[in-house]
Amino acid sequence: xxxxxxxxxxxxxxxxxxPQPVVVMSGLVALVLSLIVWPVVGFAVVLAHEGGHAVTAxxxxxxxxxxxxxxxxxxxxxxxxxxxxxxxxxxxxxxxxGSLGPSIxxxxxxxLLTGGHSDAVLWISLVFLLLALLxxxxxxxxxxxxxxxxxxxxxxxxxxxxxxxxxxxxxxWFLLFGGFGxxxxxxxxxxxxxxxxxxxxxxxxxxxxxFGMATLAALGYGAGILLNIVHPGR
Length: 234
Fold this sequence. Notes:
Layout: H1 5-11, H2 20-36, H3 38-59, E1 63-71, E2 77-84, H4 88-114, H5 118-135, H6 139-158, H7 161-185, H8 192-200, H9 204-226
Helix pairs in contact: 1-5, 2-3, 2-7, 3-4, 3-7, 4-7, 4-8, 4-9, 5-6, 5-7, 7-9, 8-9
């Protein structure tokens, strides 16, 4: 099903990339959201994290059975994605795909934005949210998917071209910031790093350091793409 996403992106109307002040301002807005209201908006990053698990499992030939999201009293969400039909390598890659998922989605969005495909970023996000909703098996996860999708749909339906572009840039910045922030926030509890330790005997601290460095590198590279400093494919 994910093979149709590049076609969807190419069909969306392209426009020139946003001016530099718009890119910077949208990044500042995303940074403020990530720092100040993370207990609320952070659930969207948790959803992207679980989406990373699901996409990786599907790409490895597995079947996603369910996605759950949970709210904790420390205001940080948790999630659990179950898939079948994966061998040892596929299971390992699925675990890696979760913590790296938001950052990878953000990098993909950054590339699309530099090509002027801001609407495509939002439509593809909406498709992913719909697919996640279909696999969601609890109320909290369903509410997060519906709320996030509703915001994106309203922007697509009623937003001006400039408004949609600004929102798309903010959304991509948020995924990049959130990808790193979620790894940092998850450092002190057993998550993917703890499961990876059980499967590989590599210490949790090393897995946490790997995820931290990878998502920080993705943030830097994505920022370079958005700010027109880095030009992928050239």
